[in-house]
Amino acid sequence: MFAVCVTFIIEPSKAEAFHAHINLNAKASVEMEAGCQLFDVCTDPSDPAKFFLYEIYDSAAAFDEHLESAHFKSFCSDIEGMVIDKKVESFENVTAARK
């Protein structure tokens, strides 16, 4: 498994619109990409312009396929001008413990 964690800081006046776009991208990723197993969108309760994404893919190659997908490219176009800062980290050998 391959995990991707992304932190976005969004222009505060555009946070609501960004939230709608990222939710659509997350839903499309899970539904349309065989290699995307999980795509959580988290918000900071003390800062509505800060978003944290936690994504699980079968492999780094599956994540690369995500980056080439039409819905991801559309998302990138849709959020142009909204992002103040973005940090992306990736991790391998994910072990999931679930209840």
Automatic annotation (TrEMBL):
Parts forming coiled coils: none
Organism superkingdom: Bacteria
Keywords: Monooxygenase, Oxidoreductase
Matches recorded under Pfam families: ABM
GO MF annotations in UniProt: monooxygenase activity
Occurrences of domain ABM (ranges): 2-91
One cellular component (GO) term of this entry: cytosol
InterPro entries in UniProt: ABM_dom, AI-2_Isomerase_LsrG, Dimeric_a/b-barrel
Signal peptide segment: none
UniProt name for this protein: Antibiotic biosynthesis monooxygenase
Species name: Halocynthiibacter halioticoli
